[in-house]
Fold this sequence. Notes:
Layout: E1 20-24, E2 27-30, E3 35-41, H1 51-67, E4 73-80, H2 84-96, H3 100-119, E5 123-133, H4 140-151, H5 159-186, E6 192-194, H6 197-208, H7 210-215
Antiparallel strand pairs: 1-2, 2-3, 3-5, 3-6, 4-5
Amino acid sequence: MPNIQESKEPSFATQQFVNIDSINNGVIKLRGGAYRRILIVSGINFDLKSAEEQEMITSAFQGFLNSVDFTLQIFIHSRKINIDNYLRKVEERENQETNELLKNQIFEYREFIKSFVSQNAIMSKNFFVVVPLDPIRVSDTGAGLKSAVFGLFGKKKNEGDEKKQTEKEYLEQLDQRVGEVVDGLNQIGLRVVPLNDEELSELFYNLYNPSTIEKKVAQ
């Protein structure tokens, strides 16, 4: 048995390299206080559309981009799919088949898939839109002056309550932006769904661990 010694090199948690403070109710809060929501968007087989339909889709998408008054990030997540498990199941089905004709057909199918995959990587693609909200932060001096001025004319708010109220307003504004994006993309014929906490965690895990994900066997 090999002698395994504990490494003395310093270890760094993955969280140190990720600019995410928290994920709650589908909202990503970054360390600097900014907010993000991520929407998964269906695709359109643009090449199968007629020239007139393509022109309408392009015009509608241009109109959508011109209608939003905030920045958007659009990205495509491509992931290589491992189909070893699928091929094993096909082979098991082949071994169980008693009809020689069907057995040969399954064998030929399995060999075709193996040959195809060896020359062409099987990829899955998902389309996402990131909706941002970057609150404008008032400096400490400005905040203190504002508190002093408004304190002369009314009851001073509790700092914790004021912070919660401000965050609530930010989240409402973010929801409004999400609604605008969903409505705009729906008009183009795209289906848009905001990611929940579990889906966001899975997405970031996939993004930061691509080699690990590729080793997972497709069901």
